[in-house]
């Protein structure tokens, strides 16, 4: 028994060492705490406690506490001092000692939870009935003109509407917001408006466009026999290049066509093709063709069974080009606006000219160094900088698909090992902020990297007298933001209210696929200590939203989002189906957890 007592006394001494360190760090931060907003003062104090606590190697202590049947302090981040003091009190009681202790110092478990609940409500609005976790949805351009779609989103559980300022314009943004507000009023449920500042997203530049051609191919069976003809749609003009079967022709000529009319054309390969009109509408005509044809801008169509004359195919969109990159290829990245071009080879397959693409943010050229890593398109392609020049960077591709990876224009570029020193607030962001202040409840701050970035945003908000009017969600999407999260949170706590978005797309690329699980857990824990609500974002049920069928891994990921206070969905044609499924998943899992929590006291009595 003496050995056990000695072990417990040793454990008490270790706990007391931690308590002393935690109190010392709080004392040293007194000046900083004076700058914190009153609503976050207790939370900031607890965050400082936790930051001191996590500097200790706790593995031995946690194992000893577990062996005694006590808390391992693994979930104590929201009420740290209280948990430390109560653990110490229980340890003293085990050896029959009862020194004077203030067990009420620090936040209790209940008060820590209350603060997080309060901050979440103030930031994201009321929760849905039967569901604690809010759902944020990224609204597409279509939401500006499709009220029914927005209404259905609100009806099916959308709590927060997200508008990304990287896309569209103020006219579209305002129409989206008006539709959200109209639907919110009709259903009787307030929906919080959040708007993303675009931030300094680094992307590849434009690539020389391909020919203005469209290919039409009939469907064939395994034997190569045509089982259904290809469909061509004649229209007055093309508004959306994503409609691959359309050909623009003069409206007056189009409206003369009748069902059964026979047309001919000579395609780009000098192949003559026959077409048949199968359906006539007011402003579109459907044609069938039994063979493959390549139609370009300027191709001539002629009706052969009636004297309607000829018509020329109007302007077609150019085919989007890409640069094929294989492992060990070289790629030139240019500083200017030079159009990108694929690599060129001679007839014998020898390289004549290596591939070129530009970078849309030329400031990176002043920061990168030889040997550093560049990742393209969410990390699908990896390169190493081999040489630097004033106007270009020479990059060796070190990882790509076995048959090569296609790099397109407007794809993300990440520099995970480079301190770019680029502010999270661009000139465009400062212009967009005027609209955000007037129309949104929350600003989502993209690519924040340091407390300096937060201070810059607060300074801009002061210009619009919006420091206490507009809440802030800090998007953590770089390795530097993760490393600096403690001081970023304390700087942001000067205003109310704040949140954190775990932007797992760029964050995974920046920190490494093998580390993203640990990184997101650390962010959740640090925000839990600060009682700051977290938004679980990027690719949640994305397969379902885009293709109408979720993967099993997506369902598990959606369930894991219960660790956060809000989960974000991206746009897609099946978004309302996703909303209904996610609402069920979250509601049922929360009921399951609540049932288990109610059973715990009964189990402890056994």
Automatic annotation (TrEMBL):
Domain called Pyruvate kinase barrel: residue spans: 131-214, 327-570
Enzyme Commission numbers on file: 2.7.1.40
Keyword terms: ATP-binding, Glycolysis, Kinase, Magnesium, Metal-binding, Nucleotide-binding, Pyruvate, Transferase
Top enzyme class: transferase
Pathway: Carbohydrate degradation; glycolysis; pyruvate from D-glyceraldehyde 3-phosphate: step 5/5
Record carries keyword ATP-binding: yes
A Pfam match: PK
MF-aspect GO terms: ATP binding; kinase activity; magnesium ion binding; potassium ion binding; pyruvate kinase activity
Family: Belongs to the pyruvate kinase family.
Listed name of the protein: pyruvate kinase
Lineage: Bacteria, Pseudomonadati, Bacteroidota, Flavobacteriia, Flavobacteriales
